[in-house]
Structures are given as structure tokens and as C-alpha cells.
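Hello Y.,

Per our agreement to keep a running log of every chain we model this quarter, I'm adding this entry. I've kept the format consistent with earlier entries: sequence first, then predicted structure.
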Amino acid sequence: MIFSIIAFVVFMSVFLTVNAVSQTAQDLALAITLHADAEAGIPEVDRNGNKWSWEQLRVLRAFAKALYEYARYGKPISIAVSAVAGSGKTSLLQGMTHIVAKLCPELLTSMTAFNRHIADSSKDILIQFQSSDGLNIKIFGNSNTVNAGGKSLLDTKAKSCGFTKVDFPSASSDRYVRLARLTLSGWLAREDRMPLLQSAKEQMQVYTTSHAFNEIVGDLVKVCNMLMDEGYVPRKTVRKDVDSKDYQPPKLSATDIEEAKKLIQRIGVNQGWAENNARCLGDGSVFELVVEILAVAVETAFLKVDLKPFCDGKSIMDAIVPQKDYRDKYWVDAGPVRSFINTTDPKHLEWLPAKILEGGGCA
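Predicted structure for the entry above:
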């Protein structure tokens, strides 16, 4: 009886505390008085159809009020939002764009991001508001990324200074695809996980394990993009000092894996998580793989390293790679590098493994 009373008291204390915090956020949001026109410009729900939290609504109301006053009196606006990953910053930004479209469509409006996935989504929203409300929009290049915007500014400035041609170092847009292929290739070899790939092939109902491998890579990149869109970084996994001469992926942090799992469980419902083919390997495997991919991406971003499948003590000949037939036309079943070598000639063995890795997109 005493235990029940204590438990009830603790529950009520927590409930009252949470309720008080929620009430404070609500009070702060509603304390922002708005003109009726400004109030009408605020969308009722976010991009996923969810109601705004009181913290989000407070920002939207403050922005709508500031924008309304800017349009009438020319008062400049500057707003910064700091929040944890997965708290809805991107949805908030798109809600603010909605407000601009409804209140001041004549303003030149851009919405961009470093990540291509969210930049594409932002581009679609800008075009949508241009069509429905005549919003004056600015899209950076074809991708609408921050990088594209920076390149455009540099190009314009260089040409204004008299340069007729500006060359920028090329950067592959498929970096995460390559990292995903390398990571999956090594991961499958580390503990003889070929049965998992065979099972994935059967679940996906594709012709070969090479088809399954390629489909899984694409969907691993989708999960990476979901996490990056929410500001996720595997901070406990990423190392400060990395050996670029003999690079090996870091040991994964259980905390980072759990954080990635919670984020995807919260945001994945509206982003195709249920249909993600990488899950044929098992959800736990997916989170391990994406944390490793993202950690390697961070660690090698500014390093010159020779990346290859990491087989954890095994030979590179054990790396699992997808392959095409001898005519390089049709995919055949994936397998270890050694299974595609049909010679014992030492000279051929010097270059064949690298050729096979390259043919499977794992080099």
C-alpha cells in the first residue's frame, strides 16, 4: 500500500511537471499577438500532416508577426532556431515558407540545405508555392543545395571580375552510394553473412543476389539521407585522430546505433521506411551499416585515403561483390572476390582483385 502511494505521488509529480512545461510553451506561443491576416498565413499542420508543437507554433507565430510588420513598416527580420535532431526544424522551415507565400509572395525566397534529399524537397515546395501563390523564388542550380548556391555566387563574382571561364574541382554526387557499396561488401564478408543476402534476395523476389545487393545499397543511402536530414551525426563513433595511410572504419558506438534507431522509428513512417529493402537484412543490421557509412563519411571527408571493403582480419579476396557475366551484360550472383578468379597466374593475380572490385562498384 505504501509502495502504491509512493508510485502514485511520483507519477503525479512527473505528470504535473510535464504539464507545466507544456503549458508554459503554450502560454509563450499564445502570448504573441497577431493581426488576423498574419494569423491566417500560418499552416495548421506540418508537411507530414502533424499538428505543430507549441514550441514550433511559437516560432511560426513570431515569424508571421515579424514578416507582417516588415511588409508594413520595413522592420528587418532575423530568426535562428536551435534544436536537437528530429525535433522538426525542417518542417518548421517549410512552414515558414508557407507563411511567406501567403503574406509576402513578392519577396525573393530561397530554401536550401547541404543534403540533396532535403534540398530537392525544398525545391519542390518552392515551385509549388510559385504555382499556387505566385511566390518569387530563387533555386540554386539544378540541385538547390547550399553547395550549388555557393558555386553560383563564386561563378557570378568571378565573371564580374573579368574571368571568362571558371573551373571547379569535380565532386562525385554518388559518394554515399560508393561508401554504402564498400561498407556492405566488407560487412557481408566479416562474419560470413552471405546467407543473409540470399534470404534478402528471396524476400525481394529478384533474380540474383547481385540485384539484391544493389537494391540494398540504394535503400541504405535513403536511410542515411533520412538521418542526415534530421542533423544526425554518429558523434561517439567518429574518431578525432585517424590514420590516413592504413584507414579502417571505427568501432561502432551502441549509443549512436540506438539514436539512429529511435530517429528512424519516429520519422520513417512518412519516408518509406516500411518498404525499405535494406530491412531484409534485419533492422539491427541496417542501423549498424548506416552508422558505419556516416562515420566513415565524416572521418574521410578531408583525407586522401584508399578506401576499400573492410573485412575485419580477412583478406580482400573475401569481400562480397556483385558481378556481371563474362560479356559484362547480365548480373550474376554476388560472391567473394576469389570466386571470380579463374587463374593462378601471379601476374594476373596482381591486378585481377582490383578489377573485380571495380566491376562490382566496390572500389
